[in-house]
Every structure is written in structure tokens, then in C-alpha cells.
Design goal:
By secondary structure, the protein is mainly beta. The protein is built from three helices and 38 strands. It has an eight-stranded mixed sheet, with no helix packed on it. The protein has a five-stranded mixed sheet with strand order 6-32-33-34-35. Strands 24, 25, 26, 27 and 28 form a five-stranded antiparallel sheet that branches.
Length: about 500
Amino acid sequence: MAYRWETPASVWQEDERSRQFELLATEGLGRIDWQAQAHGRLPDVARLLGASLPGACACGADGAPIYPEGFAFCPNCGRPLQRLPGTPSRLPGWWGPGQDAMLPRHVPHGLPVTSLPLGDSLEERPAAPHVGRAEVSMPAPPNSTCVFAASHYGFPEQRLLALAHTRGVLQYWDPIAQLWHVMTPDEGAASLAFTASAYAWLPVLEPRRGEVALVPTADGLMRLWINPVSETYRTEPVLAAPLVAAPGAMRRHIACLIKPEGTVRLWSARADLGEVEEYACPDVPASGWSRPIGYDGRLFWLHEAGQLAWRPGEAPQFTPWPMGWQPRLEFGGPTQSRDGRLWHIGHDGQGYSLLELGSDRPQQAPIDGARLGFANFLFRRGHPVVDEPWSGEHIEDLGQDETLVLPLLRAFNNNRSQPSGLVLRFHKVTGRAEEALHERVIPRTTVEWIGRRNVILDEIVRLSRPLECLPLVYAGCLWLHHPDWNVLRGWRLEELA
């Protein structure tokens, strides 16, 4: 005989003989495959559901290591249980270096800029020239070329997802068992693979239980849901048309580039998916776009052939680059001048220059060398550029002339006069920036935090493809991932814990 227990969010079944509890259904997760659960997963499942675990009693050793939500005492021995919180976590989420919705409007959205106060903790470490080491580590996901998201997804605790978007593989990190789990698609779920452009997803700020994000796929824009109990995911179609560029959000509107019948079009809607509009874009390339950048009320997509700008309620404008001028998209992204205009670096065959974005007649500003960075976080060789983006570098140490700094993440803080953030510093690199980013194995690289104090966090030997280094923030730590590494390197952020 089995007893049925109903809680506000779930339905459980208790076996009269074994006294084991089995989850039959829970809000938002659809079909539950409880029999497939190994006992090693139950502590993680309990924390996600806000269920109860054995405390002082030993009844869990008899095969019932989980109890329904709200149970305060063991029904067998009466001893107190460990009641886990059932309210969603309020830790700040992480959706990739370019997906921080909390930034003010005067900071470009879509670039690697975060509003998290990372420097408040990192700068407490010993300053350079002391070389630190990673303090924590995490196994790399099995499919290591991926993007990460850390959020609560409507559950009581934050969890980490790794989406290998080139293969469409979704991976879930179980922090209790310290294992990655590959989630299987429910019947009818769309493939999550997307390779037409740089990847970006649109997080849900107030998610329902199991709701993750709006994700681009080859078949259209989908709403992604996860079921961590059964280790599965499902999708709901939002827009059924092939996507050629990742979606972006501008205030209360979302937009993406689609190619429904051989011609590229811009599709837009309000955040509630009402007021749908489409615009023909006959001269727009069908692949190879950057992720969108939001600034000054517009979304920008950048391409080797030109820029596409769109303001909600207006037709998009595609502007080819000037004749002979080629952008350097791998150098970082657009930056701002003091008058608020956006500029992007490129090369005209003779030298580098900065080109104004979003203008019918863009101005150009010649510069005397490559500048790597974005959003006012710029470096020429090993020195910061602290005034206008075309200004000369600020030289504090001539010994840094033989280094090259690649910014990875800027931490926005209104209380700081100069930008701060995470960078890679390549040592003994004297050639062109393009060669260091694409063609070389760099013998020595240091991971540094540049701010009020410059802190060397770690040292990397023989780094290749540095553009694939990906920072993320999860579980009160700053992590750095590279597809070639077996582990993620991490540094604790006590201020965010």
C-alpha cells in the first residue's frame, strides 16, 4: 500500500513497507523519472525542491534519504530533519560576460561588462609583483566548448548550466556530487545547436520553476526549460523561423535576425511577445554576426561586411564599412568617447583607426597602434588608454612595452574614476596583436586584475587561442575556463558569497 502526500508544489508517494518517498509530480517540471535517480543525486534534488533531509536520525541509511517539503521531523523516529529553504535564491545570476541587465543605460549592453563588485574582493590579495594561484577548481564540462549560465531558474538554490551550443548539448553541474550531468531532451524538444553567429541568450529575470532563457537555435527562437530531477530539458517555440544572428533586448523589446524564405529579415516583439513586427533586410549577410550590443536606445549587430542598427519602432539600417576598411572584431568591441559616441577599431591596409558607429556619415580617428578592449577598458600593448580611445597610452612602467594585455571582463563601478577588470597579460610578445591572438602559442601569460591595486591571480604556461578564455561568476567565485583545460580555475569572492 502507498500513501499519497500533497505539498503546495509537489505530490509524493510513501511506500508503507520501505517507508521510502517517491516524487510523483512537482510544479513546472513535467514528467518525473524518479526511479532513475541514484541516491547520490538526492541531496541536490532536495535542495532544488526545498525538501527535507535526515538530520540527527539514521533512518536515511535504510533507503529513505529524502522527505517531502515541509517535513520537520522524521516520521519513523521523530527526530528533527534538515529543512531546506523553499524560496528562490537571490544571488545575482550570470549569463555570460555580455548579459548583465543591471548595468545603467549609459554603459553598452552586450559587451563583457558586469555590475558585480568583483574588485572589492580581488584587490584584497597581495599586489603585483606577487604571483597568486587559483584557490578553487571545478572539473571542466565534458563538452568543453560552451557558454555558461548560473541562476536559480525558479528553484531555491543557484545552479550552473553549460551549453555546448555548437553541438546542442546541455550540461548541469551537481555541486553536491561534484559531477557534470548531460541532460537529455524530452520527446519533441528542439535541438539547441546554433552556429550561425556568436552566441547570446536572453535570460528570464523572474523565471517560473525550471524556466531558463530564450535561446537561439537553427530552427527558431525557443524558450528553454530544465528538469534537474529527471535530468531532462524541453523547449517551447517562440519564433518558428531559422535564425541567422543571436537575439537582443532593448528596453521592453526583443529582436533577432531570421531567414524564413531565403531573405534576411529583422523580427521584433515586445518582451511579452506582443506587437510583432518584421522588416526586410535585403543586403544583410546571412551568417557571421557578433552578438548584439545595446546602447543609446538601439541594438547593433556587427559583421565583417558592415553594421546593422535598429531602434524599436523603426526600420533597421545596414551600413557597410568604408571602402578598404576592415573591422577587428577579435580585439574586443566598441568603446566610447567622452561625448558618448561609440567607436570600433579597424585597419585600412595602412594603419589602424577608430570608426564611429551608428552614423550615416561616420567619422574616423587614426591611431598609432592596435588597442585591445571595450567600453573604455582599453590597452595599447601593456599600457592602459585612460582618456579618449584615440589618446596615447598611459605609461607607468616601460618594462610593459614587451607585453600585450587582452581584457576579458570589465567591472563597472560608479565610484571608480578609471575602469577595472580581468585581463590576460602576454609576456615577451613584440609582434602584431593579430598574431598573438590567432597564430602563436604564448609561452607565459598571467591572469591579472587591474584596478585600484593590480593583482596577479595566476600564471599560465603555453596558452593558445586566448580568445577562447571565458570568465564566469558562480557560487561566490570568479572562474576562468578554456576548452583546452581539464579544470576551471577559481578565486573566491567573499563580498558576493
